[in-house]
Write a structure and sequence with these properties.
With 392 residues, this protein is α+β, with helices and mostly antiparallel strands. It has helices at residues 7-23, 26-31, 43-55, 74-86, 93-106, 109-120, 234-246, 249-268, 280-308, 315-339, 357-368, 375-386, and strands at 126-129, 145-149, 152-159, 170-176, 187-193, 199-205, 211-223, 227-228, 270-271, 274-275. It has three domains: 7-124, Butyryl-Coa Dehydrogenase, subunit A, domain 1; 128-238, Butyryl-CoA Dehydrogenase, subunit A, domain 2, CATH 2.40.110.10; 247-386, Butyryl-CoA Dehydrogenase, subunit A, domain 3. It contains twelve helices and ten strands. The strands form three sheets. It has a four-stranded mixed sheet. A four-stranded antiparallel sheet has the order 2-3-7-6, with no helix packed on it. Helix 4 (74-86) packs parallel to helix 8. The radius of gyration is 21 Å and the shape is globular.
Length: 392
């Protein structure tokens, strides 16, 4: 792997940075923060900005041109995602980074033509329906049923922790299509219009203060071609989609920005006439975080490079996800220690340092070690598929 980028890639990255600096001043971001999710933006702002990026052909850099993509490599897609996250642009990750790339691999030609172009232009958005009350870490235990009836499927079930279900156009979901098969072999993947009769979305507020959603399916009838890929092969397709989700190309950009902000705060904030950056313990902690941030960045690049070589990273994606999510928690924890009691002040509170972002980051960092498969699962994947250890 070449650890540097070409001059063309560097120029293109600078172009993206210049555009984002101009289009996303701090005032615009702060004015459009929504109440639904700490740190996220109002849905109308997110969608409008996605369309603007889509018009420039940037949302789907790594997709084939015939499906509305930019024809660039996945490494260049990762560079774009990193820059976008660094400047805290509204996220389209559920559609463009987690589901779209998987759809481009095993979706039918009709599915690719129908969905990839609109996703890449920011015209439609997807949510992900994996988890259920009794199926989270053990995802193959899903109970939602899809029954084939003539030219339709009838779906009944219940999904939880479905991010952005309140505003998404479609749900990318896992359902059981053969109840008599072993649990990993009787599952199929569907893409369902959220406006379909029988779908109910209920908002759920978490202890951390942000919202998820439950999605209920009550005799939801969808067309036969709503199934994605091969019937009863959904588990293997979802596994690939999860590898894209775990790649964390966008996550590292946000971590780098948070780290840079914390370093700047320590340089500019004085205690007893001395900047915090001269405090020995703070310097040590920031130095250790700097090493961890660079490790996470290189792991993220490695996964993107493998994808650019038309390989499917598996344990490598798990390594990236585990390292970046645990780094997120450590970074937020160090930030809270540095800020002291002021660190618990929320956005909008008088005297909240760094606009109250660290309080939000700290609350969100714990779920990040669980989403896309808990880090205990990632360690097992690394042990089995990366180190060749036996399954336990």
């Amino acid at each position: 792997m070449d650890f540097d980028f070409t001059e063309e890639q560097k120029r293109w990255r600078e172009e993206v940075e210049d555009w984002l600096r101009k289009e996303l001043p701090v005032q615009a971001l702060e004015a459009n923060v929504g109440d639904q999710y700490q740190g996220a933006y109002k849905p109308e702002f997110t969608r409008a900005f996605a369309r603007r990026m889509g018009e420039k052909g940037w949302l789907a850099q790594g997709w084939p041109k015939e499906y509305g993509g930019g024809g660039r490599t996945m490494l260049e897609q990762a560079l774009f995602n990193e820059v976008k996250a660094y400047y805290r642009a509204p996220s389209t990750a559920l559609s463009t980074d987690m589901t779209g790339p998987a759809l481009a691999i095993f979706g039918s030609e009709e599915h690719k033509k129908k969905f990839l172009g609109p996703i890449g232009r920011g015209e439609i958005s997807l949510c992900v329906g994996y988890s259920e009350p009794n199926a989270g870490t053990d995802l193959a235990s899903v109970k939602t049923r899809a029954v084939e009836e003539g030219d339709e499927w009838t779906i009944n079930g219940h999904k939880i922790f479905t991010s952005s279900a309140q505003t998404a156009d479609y749900i990318w979901m896992l359902a059981r299509t053969d109840p008599d098969a072993p649990k990993h072999k009787g599952l199929s993947l569907f893409l369902v219009d959220m406006r379909t009769p029988g779908i109910t979305v209920r908002n759920v507020k978490t202890m951390a203060g942000w919202d998820h959603a439950e999605v209920f399916f009550d005799n939801v009838r969808v067309p036969r071609d709503s199934i994605i890929g091969e019937k009863n092969r959904g588990w293997y397709q979802i596994a690939m989609a999860l590898d894209f989700e775990r790649s964390a190309a966008g996550a590292i950009g946000g971590l780098v920005r948070n780290f840079d902000d914390l370093v700047s705060y320590c340089k500019e904030t004085y205690q007893d006439g001395v900047p915090l950056s001269k405090h020995p313990d703070i310097r040590r902690k920031l130095a250790e975080l700097a090493i961890d941030v660079e490790i996470a960045r290189l792991l993220s690049y490695r996964v993107a490079w493998l994808q650019s070589q038309h390989q499917v990273p598996n344990y490598e994606a798990s390594m990236t996800k585990m390292v970046s999510s645990e780094l997120s928690r450590r970074l937020a924890g160090v930030g809270m220690q540095v800020l002291g009691l002021q660190g618990v002040l929320k956005k909008g509170s008088k005297g909240a340092p760094l606009m109250g972002r660290l309080q939000s980051d700290y609350a969100n960092s714990i779920p990040s070690t669980i989403g896309a498969g808990s880090n205990e699962i990632q360690r097992n994947i690394i042990a089995q598929r990366g180190l060749g250890m036996p399954r336990v």
